[in-house]
Design a protein that fits this description.
Layout lengths: L2 H22 L2 H33 L5 H12 L1 H19 L6 H19 L6 H19 L3 H10 L1 E4 L2 E4 H30 L6 H26 L8 H14 L1 H16 L7 E4 L2 E8 L3 E6 L4 E5 H6 L3 E2 L7 E9 L5 H13 L11 E7 L4 E9 L7 H17 L24 H13 L5
Antiparallel strand pairs: 1-2, 3-4, 3-7, 4-5, 5-6, 8-10, 9-10
């Protein structure tokens, strides 16, 4: 900004300040300021008197959370409501009395009313920080418009600029760009969530296709919002080509893993290797997929833990999808019985016991095979099928083992356990000295190698 422009701005601000002081020192202006102060005092007094009755009435509202939320929102701003109402009555009384128009009271009334409307409307945004920023920006714009300062401030901001090559970037352009970007991105987010919800409710699409379409819609709307916002404020998009190329190279190295996970997520959605609801095993993690995100997959285990596994792991590592083509899963249970048992009876009884477990399906019959002659048992393997792997595998194995235990116990089939025989080649001599002396003699013979 050149010195001549700065001098003109300083002179304008100084002249505006002198005019404002002359205006406020007039007797009529002081009277209007007194009216505004009286309205403030009365607003606090009315709020103090009506606070408890309004709260008592609010507590009586049952079964209507929407109405209760509105009442609570109004209750928190009752001082401002009373203040706006009193100022409105003051302007009406002034006009009815035929007196001059109270400029200060009118301006304060407009400012207070604008703040009240903006404060209530900003409650639509649930994020507190975003709501406060919107409220501050909207009220600042309204206040400048009410005070007829919008054009002068706009000219000052437009004159505050820097030249970047052939482009001129002013403070007004930056503010407009931020405001338009915020509005367009907010609208794109709302529309994207609405369309994504509609797609997720569509029963004609597969779960992976729903997720893919939802992500494409959200990302596409955000890109369109960016282009529209920059073009609407007059930003030359071709001027950003070199800059965006340099930024892209830097981000490519710095965000390599992020981009890799994002591309891996798109590949997973396209090849439909996993989808929400599938039961998977990845390393030591066993659970079912709750949600597919752009960067990770949410996997919930049986103990309630939720693992956020990067998409890249599902591409580069071995993944067991228990429900990829169907929900049928075969489970093997190994067991052994004593050698005095009839293996034919063992096979029959074990098949009947496993088939009686509720989660074991009947469509695929239970099979049992003799697999070997162990050191102290006949070894068998029992194979059965379930159709609900998200219900867990260990618990159904436990149910089948309990059923085998009950069946073997009812039919007199023993389950062996290892036996060990210890042979003492050195004789033990018991003397009158007692057990302690006998142990000492055995230890002495063992120490000197006495084996007679």
């Amino acid at each position: 900004m050149d010195p001549e422009t700065l001098r003109r701005i300083a002179a304008g601000v100084s002249e505006w300040g002198r005019e404002a002081l002359r205006f406020f020192y007039q007797p009529s202006s002081l009277a209007q300021i007194g009216v505004v102060a009286l309205c403030v005092i009365l607003a606090f007094a009315f709020d103090r008197v009506t606070r408890h009755p309004i709260e008592r009435q609010a507590r009586r509202i049952k079964g209507a959370p929407g109405v209760l939320r509105i009442v609570v929102a109004i209750r928190r701003r009752m001082k401002l409501v009373y203040f706006v109402a009193l100022l409105w009555f003051a302007t009406l009384f002034d006009l009815a009395a035929g007196g001059p128009r109270s400029q200060i009271v009118s301006v304060v009334f407009k400012l207070a009313l604008a703040y009240l409307v903006i404060a209530v409307a900003s409650r639509i945004v649930r994020n507190r920080l975003a709501s406060r920023l919107i409220k501050f920006a909207a009220w600042t714009l309204a206040a400048l418009s009410i005070l007829d300062l919008l054009d002068p401030v706009s000219r000052i901001l437009d004159q505050t600029a820097v030249a970047v090559g052939q482009s001129r970037i002013s403070a007004l352009l930056v503010i407009k760009t931020i405001a338009v970007l915020a509005i367009t991105l907010w609208l794109a987010s709302i529309v994207g969530k609405f369309l994504d919800a509609r797609v997720q409710r569509s029963e004609e699409l597969t779960p992976t296709l729903r997720v893919l379409i939802g992500k494409v819609l959200k990302i596409g709307l955000i890109l369109i919002a960016l282009v529209v916002a920059l073009a609407s404020v007059g930003v030359d998009l071709t001027a950003l080509t070199v800059f965006s190329g340099a930024i892209g190279v830097g981000l490519g190295f710095g965000l390599q893993k992020v981009v890799s996970n994002f591309i891996s997520g798109i590949i997973i959605l396209l090849d439909r290797s996993i989808k929400p609801g599938d039961t998977i095993s990845l390393g030591e993690t066993f659970g079912w997929i709750r949600e597919l995100r752009a960067r990770f997959v949410s996997v919930v285990t049986r103990d309630g833990k939720e693992y956020l596994i990067p998409n890249e792991d599902f591409i580069t590592n071995q993944v067991i999808n228990w429900s990829f083509s169907n929900d049928l899963v075969r489970i093997d249970v190994h067991f052994g019985v004593s050698y005095d048992s009839d293996p034919h009876e063992v096979i029959r009884i074990s098949k009947e016991a496993a088939a009686a477990v509720p989660r074991v399906i009947e469509a695929k019959p239970v099979v049992c095979w003799l697999t070997g002659f162990g050191d102290s048992s006949l070894d068998f393997i029992l194979r059965f099928w379930i159709s609900d792997p998200p219900g867990g595998l260990t618990n159904v194995k436990g149910q089948v083992l309990l059923a085998l235990w009950d069946a073997f116990k009812a039919n007199g089939i023993g389950i062996p356990f290892p036996h060990r025989e210890v042979l003492l080649r050195t004789p033990i001599v018991v003397q009158e000295g007692g057990a302690g002396a006998a142990r000492a003699e055995v230890a002495s013979k063992a120490k000197f190698g006495d084996t007679d």
